[in-house]
Amino acid sequence: MSILDIPVTTLAGAPTTLGELLGGKAALVVNVASRCGLTPQYAGLVQLQSNYGERGFTVVGVPCNQFFGQEPGSAEEIQEFCSTTYGVDFPLLAKTDVNGEERHPLYRELIGEGADIQWNFEKFLVNGSGEVVARFAPKVQPDDPELVSALEKTI
Asked: Which residues are the active-site ones (predicted)?
C-alpha cells in the first residue's frame, strides 16, 4: 500500500486518503499542538503554504496530544485556534497518535524503520508520488534553509 492510499480523517471529520487530500502535490506532514513551546511554528508553516502552495505543495497538520497533553482541545477548538491565531489555511487532520501501539498507519509509513516521533512539530517532506524524501526534527523551523532547499527540490 502506498502512503497515498492510507485512509485519514480531516479535522472536520470527513474520511479521505492522503492521496485525495494532496492531489499529486508534495507535502510537509507535521504533527502539531496548540499549547507547545513550538506552537509559533504555525506562522512559518502558513508562510510556506503561502509561498509554495501554487507550485504544487501543501502543509498537512496532524494534531497530536501525546506529548504532555499539549493538544487537549476538540476538533472545533483546534480549528478555531489555528484559524484565528495563525490564519491556518492548509489541511488539518483529526487528532492522531503518532507513537505507540495506537500509532496511525500514516505515521507507521512515514517513520518506516526510523525512530519514534521526538516531539510536536516533527516534519516529513513527502513528494507527489508519496515517497518520504526528508525528515526534520521538531526544532527545525519552517524557514530553515535546509528544509526550504529540500522543499524546492521536491516540488
From this structure: 36
Please say whether the beta carbons of 106 and 8 come within 8 A. Answer: yes
Q: What CATH number has the domain bearing residue 56?
A: 3.40.30.10
SS3 for the chain is CCHHHCEEEECCCCEEEHHHHHCCCEEEEEEECCCCCCCCHHHHHHHHHHHHHHHCEEEEEEECCCCCCCCCCCHHHHHHHHHHHHCCCCCEECCCCCCCCCCCHHHHHHHCCCCCCCCCCCEEEECCCCCEEEEECCCCCCCCHHHHHHHHHHC
Q: What is the pLDDT of residue 6?
A: 96
Residue 153 lies in a domain: no
Q: Which of 36, 64, 147, 151 is catalytic?
A: 36
pLDDT digits (tens, 9 = 90+) for 35-90: 999 999 999 999 999 999 999 999 999 999 999 999 999 999 999 999 999 999 99
Query: Global pTM?
Result: 0.98
64 flagged as catalytic: no
Residue 152: inside a domain = no
The answer to whether position 55 is within a domain reads yes
Check pLDDT > 80 for residue 1: no
